[in-house]
Amino acid sequence: MPRSQKNDNFIDKTFTIIADILLRIVPTSQREREAFTYYRDGMSAQAEGEYAEALQNYYEAMRLEIDPYDRSYILYNIGLIHTSNGEHAKALEYYFQALERNPSLPQAFNNVAVICHYRGEQAIKQHDIESSKAWFNQAAEYWKQAIQLAPGNYIEAQNWLKITGRI
């Protein structure tokens, strides 16, 4: 049974019902409907911490989805899973692929910045001040892009930019 048919909570059930109605009303191909179903099931599995299942669904959605904008969100979610698993290099690959398809994705810029900032902190712990500065400068550039796209978001990043004199 597909995950979308066994949602247990109210919000997931409501989303599933609305999505199913939209898929019937909006003119879409069978392939597009199938891609969306895999994407939706991937999001549901991801929300439950079932990352392997989520990745399987996302990869299947990527196989079917042809729209670059829709693919950007699938790639972004794959990046989120890799970030959660501590696989930062892989996560960055997926975030950058998402941004290639959709350069107006502030959350991808933010997540790239978070990883760069984390690497800057790791460099400080290893007493590598030059590398830490480079990582922090990269984080600043990505946060600036995220903030430009979503000015009301990322308040902590805005404060960090101000405190460190990078804004």
Tell me what you see in this structure.
The protein is elongated and about 55 Å long. 77% of the residues lie in helices and 0% in strands. The relative contact order is 0.08. It contains eight helices and no strands. Helix 2 (30-47) runs antiparallel to helix 3, helix 4 (68-84) packs antiparallel against helix 5 and helix 5 packs antiparallel against helix 6. The protein has 167 residues and is mainly alpha-helical. The mean pLDDT is 90. It has helices at residues 10-25, 30-47, 51-64, 68-84, 88-101, 106-125, 129-149, 155-163. Keywords: Chloroplast, Membrane, Photosynthesis, Plastid, Repeat, Thylakoid, TPR repeat. InterPro entries: PSI_Ycf3_assembly, TPR-like_helical_dom_sf, TPR_rpt, Ycf3/AcsC/BcsC/TPR_MFPF.
Q: What is the compact description of this entry?
A:
The chain has eight helices and no strands. It has 167 residues and is mainly α. Helix 4 packs antiparallel against helix 5 (88-101) and helix 5 packs antiparallel against helix 6.
Secondary-structure topology with pairs:
Blueprint: H1 10-25, H2 30-47, H3 51-64, H4 68-84, H5 88-101, H6 106-125, H7 129-149, H8 155-163
Helix content: over 70%
What's the total number of strands? 0
Major sheet:
none
Distance between the first and last residues' Cα: 51 Å
Q: Oligomeric state of the chains?
A: single chain
Q: Bin the strand percentage.
A: under 5%
Principal-axis shape: elongated
Discrete helix count: 8
Radius of gyration: 18 Å
